[in-house]
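Worked example

This section walks through a single chain of length 165. The input is the sequence exactly as stored; nothing has been trimmed or padded.
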Amino acid sequence: MFNVFKRKSIWISMLVATILIGLFAFAQVGARSTVKVRHLPLALVVNDTGKDAKNVVKKLRKESHKKSAEIKWVNVTHTSELTKGFASGKYYGAVVIHSGFTKAINQQTDYLKGKIITQKLAALVVKTPVAAKTAPFQQQKALANSLTKKTPEQAKISLIRQSRK
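Given that input, the structure is written out below as tokens.
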């Protein structure tokens, strides 16, 4: 059984296999880590006019004004224009902020506020059960119930990439 380990041909073939695997692994990792993307053009379509959508766009644009920015945002007014821009190579992907984005964010914020109020009220009742009978407690409970009555809509942002042919 140990005669296998005494043969030079087996050791040499194992050494060659290890070196080849190491070279291929190094080539793959090296190729991926050395690529630096700068000013990659991406389309930005904003179909919402609300405050939260404007804040998201403002933050995205602020990052792209740096010298070492990886993304260059290209304004596109409507999603129907994306196909033409992809075909011409004007941009390679798109971020679409759908209409109703701000409304959905506000609904989610209110829903979370209601959940937090409900948890705090439950903790208060455990500590001081008498507090549950007071008018302010009942008002807060009614507020929390009204905020959590309806499940909020999902704020929609789509990422679209150019399809390869």
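What to look for: The mean pLDDT is 83.
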